[in-house]
Amino acid sequence: MKILTAAQTRALDQATIQEQGITSAQLMERAASAFVEWLSHQFDSNEAGEILLLCGPGNNGGDGLAAARLLHQAGYAVRVALLPAEKQSADWQHNRQQLPAAVPVAEMEAEKLPEIASGTLVVDALFGTGLSRPLEGLAAAVVRHLNKAQARVVAIDLPSGLFAEAPQPADSAVVRAQHTVSFGLPKLAFLLPQNADFVGAWHVEDIGLSKRFINETATPWHYTDAAAVAGALPPRPKFSHKGTFGHALLLAGSRGKMGAAVLAAGACLRGGVGLLTAHVPGCGYDIFQISQPEAMCLPDPQVAYLSKLPKLDAYQAVGIGPGLGQAEATYTVLRKLLKNAAKSTEKRPTPLPLVIDADALNLLGSHRALLKLLPENTILTPHPKEFERLTEPARDDYHRLELLRDFATAHRCLVVLKGAYTCLATPTGELHFNSTGNAGMATGGSGDVLTGVLLALRAHAQLPAFEAVRLSVYAHGRAGDLAAVHTGQAGLVAGDIVRHIGPALAEVQAQI
Ligand SMILES: NC(=O)C1=CN([C@@H]2O[C@H](COP(=O)(O)OP(=O)(O)OC[C@H]3O[C@@H](n4cnc5c(N)ncnc54)[C@H](O)[C@@H]3O)[C@@H](O)[C@H]2O)[C@@H](O)CC1
Ligand SMILES: Nc1ncnc2c1ncn2[C@@H]1O[C@H](COP(=O)(O)OP(=O)(O)O)[C@@H](O)[C@H]1O
Ligand SMILES: [K+]
């Protein structure tokens, strides 16, 4: 699914209007009906009580006025409070005229803000994507008044005061909604942690916007939903053998952190790799062999950490990082790996695919000269703190996305910035936000599991780098979602994710 800019969203509305031969008022009617349908599924008229709709002067306010009429017709008790303005949009005026006289309407004033009793259901239709500057004056006062009330707040399209794709100045007045109901496609603002308290749970309703326009429009942001990865995993041919699905090498573990190596290996095996060899420090040999009998194991001469790089000729992909530690000798292993992976051989004309995670990322951060050695299409999987060590502290979540895109394009890498909506940046500067996963995965070892899945799918001969990464991130989150059905979020541990990778991949396997 694509995520459009605010300007592209306006153009999409226009294209829909022209293509379908409808008026903008008819499109607004669709949006308002979709909103009212969502609301009526959520709250019946008893649960809702008297609904207060706060309406601004633009089309967002127009949506609110149309919704007030439809709710009234559906038997809900509603009242409307209007934000005074010099000028209202044409569709606002149309919907103001259509509002039945039985619906009470008041104009807000600084001294007469609407009464909002505790528990009131409030629809925020003050401003949407047309917001051009932070709220001030009466609009800001209304928003602050609403935020102080103990109301249940549902925002139409966007919480008022929030920009759809840019940061707010600190202390701006922004509605804190429990739900945001938007139309057609999600907005960038919904995906960033800094906006979570404003947006609440978000929902996107279909209003029949032009599919042609969406298909033809190149957007900076994408949302990886089930449709984006449907059929992405090739079926396993009848006569396949273990050599068909690649041989992966995992460099992981140090004293006290062998669990990370075991989890990553388990995930790699469940990710469908043909063969897996793990190179682990001496202290991890028994641990690894006993807990992962399906994998082969090469013990390092050093007991507590890795000091040697095995020969790479046999492998189709290498993962490095989980539980690795940051010993000086291990830094040397990483440097050698980067150099050797970049060399082309007769059997392998392109660089050896690499997945770099955890302490291997921290080593890159503390020895930035290594960044120059990263082979093209290397996969890096930092969480925000690890990413900061590779770059610089971000001013806010939007700035972090800029840093992410710049890093991926400068180093021609695939960077997986982990979080609730994990964001994959490609070497060409696209950003793909993942839709799966849950807060139960905020538990030690979840990231090691992702490294294992990435390693398996990167060793897969038929998956190009981008498809392998997008699918891995999606399947990892989906495995977490499937696991949480059994464990609940609090009870979820990383091993539960490993056990559900198989079912998650089965869902996206192509049927032929
Ligand atoms: N046909 C369409 O264009 C559709 C639009 N839709 C709705 O229309 C919304 C966008 O409508 P608009 O473009 O009219 O924008 P808004 O309704 O968000 O607000 C625009 C109005 O607010 C004023 N304004 C902007 N920033 C302000 C500020 N800080 N303080 C005070 N006034 C400010 C502008 O001058 C303008 O009058 C969407 O969010 C969505 O809710 C939906 O009805 C779907 C169809
Ligand atoms: N709130 C959340 N919602 C969805 N996924 C999450 C959430 N918190 C963490 N995750 C996922 O869990 C993984 C955590 O990785 P990481 O931070 O490296 O943990 P660790 O180092 O303990 O393995 C990432 O893939 C991340 O996307
Ligand atoms: K709004």
From TrEMBL:
Coiled coil regions in record: none
Gene3D superfamilies: 3.40.1190.20, YjeF N-terminal domain
Recorded catalytic activity of this chain's protein: (6R)-NADPHX = (6S)-NADPHX; (6S)-NADHX + ADP = AMP + phosphate + NADH + H(+); (6R)-NADHX = (6S)-NADHX; (6S)-NADPHX + ADP = AMP + phosphate + NADPH + H(+)
Cofactor section: K(+); Mg(2+)
UniProt domain YjeF C-terminal: residue ranges: 225-508
UniProt binding sites for K(+): 60, 124, 160
Residue ranges of every copy of the YjeF N-terminal domain listed in the record: 9-215
Source organism, top-level taxon: Bacteria
EC number: 4.2.1.136, 5.1.99.6
InterPro entries: Carbohydrate_kinase_pred_CS, CARKD, Nnr, Ribokinase-like, YjeF_N_dom, YjeF_N_dom_sf
Keywords: ATP-binding, Isomerase, Lyase, Metal-binding, Multifunctional enzyme, NAD, NADP, Nucleotide-binding, Potassium
Translocase in keyword set: no
Cofactor details (free text): Binds 1 potassium ion per subunit.
Binding residues annotated for AMP, in chain numbering: 418-422, 447
Binding site for (6S)-NADPHX: 59-63, 128-134, 157, 260, 323, 383, 448
Function text: Catalyzes the dehydration of the S-form of NAD(P)HX at the expense of ADP, which is converted to AMP. Together with NAD(P)HX epimerase, which catalyzes the epimerization of the S- and R-forms, the enzyme allows the repair of both epimers of NAD(P)HX, a damaged form of NAD(P)H that is a result of enzymatic or heat-dependent hydration.
Subunit-structure text: Homotetramer.
Family assignment from sequence similarity: Belongs to the NnrE/AIBP family. In the N-terminal section; belongs to the NnrE/AIBP family.
Protein name per the record: Bifunctional NAD(P)H-hydrate repair enzyme
